[in-house]
Amino acid sequence: MFNRFLASIGIGSAKIDTLLEKARYSPGEEVRGVVKIQGGSVEQQIETIQLSVMTEYIRESNDTKYTQRGEVGRFHVSAPFKLQAGERRDVPFSFRLPHQTPLTIGRAPVWVKTELDVRGGVDPGDNDRIEVVPSAPMNTVLEAVNLLGFRLRKAECEYSSRLGRGMPFVQELEFVPTTQFRGRLDELEVMFYPSDRELELVLQIDRRARGLASFFAEAMDMDESFVRVRFSNDQLAAGPNAIAQQLSDIIARYA
Asked: pLDDT tens, position by position, for the chain (255 residues)?
């Protein structure tokens, strides 16, 4: 009985260690691994094993910026079971990394959080950092942006209920022009919204102030245009040069 009491407050309770098949993924890719469980000093009822894809984003309140944790996706990978005292158990799992998972460039950590839901006890957990790299369609667009002379300045996840599409944040990749659009744009921000069949972009085109009217427009944040662009997988298969030409035409309309 005393051991049960200790387990209920986390002493002598079960422990877990999550092992991922690899440490680098692209959004939409399958994540596989195993949760290794070590039973504690008493039998415990495990309700479920839950895996969550987590990240951090920046939120502003009263002119103060602070970092907040955000859940990108949640997956239950086990039915309820009894874990005997001292028992070792391996629970394999697989899930698709959500398309909305931010890339781990700039200040955007991503990790897989594992929680063991123990009835009447402390839930043990484990955190495993992963690297999230661009998918092939994203790489095509990034290469196209590079061909147009844009250089990545920063990448951040920021709070945005409007642009998050069901998430509390959106990742913004901020580029500065170095050649073709230098002098016409202050910056270009790119937001990715991938799916299995296409890659949607939202471009925030920030025009450079030219003349008094443009100066006032910039001061009132009226110099920015938001443009939605969709590229099918077939269009992306044409390569970065073809995508660069289409992006150039679109950006030129608003520059």
From this structure: 434 433 343 444 789 999 999 999 999 999 999 999 999 888 889 999 999 999 999 998 888 888 999 999 999 999 899 999 999 999 999 999 999 999 998 778 999 999 999 876 656 789 999 999 999 999 999 999 999 999 999 999 999 988 888 899 999 999 999 998 998 899 999 999 999 999 999 999 998 655 434 443 444 444 578 999 999 999 999 999 999 999 999 999 987
Residue 36 gets the label, from left (phi > 0), alpha (psi -120 to 50) or beta, of beta
- As a whole number of angstroms, the distance between CA 90 and CA 108 comes to 31
Q: Residue 188 is inside which H or E element, if any?
A: strand 185-194
Q: pTM, whole model, 2 decimals?
A: 0.85
Two structure tokens written together for 128: 């495993």
Domains, the chain, in order of start with CATH, read 2-132 (2.60.40.640), 136-254 (no CATH)
List the beta strands (DSSP E) in 62-161: 64-76, 81-83, 88-96, 110-118, 125-132, 150-159
Distance CA 89, CA 99 (A): 31
Contacts of 250 (CB under 8 A, 6+ apart): 203, 227, 229
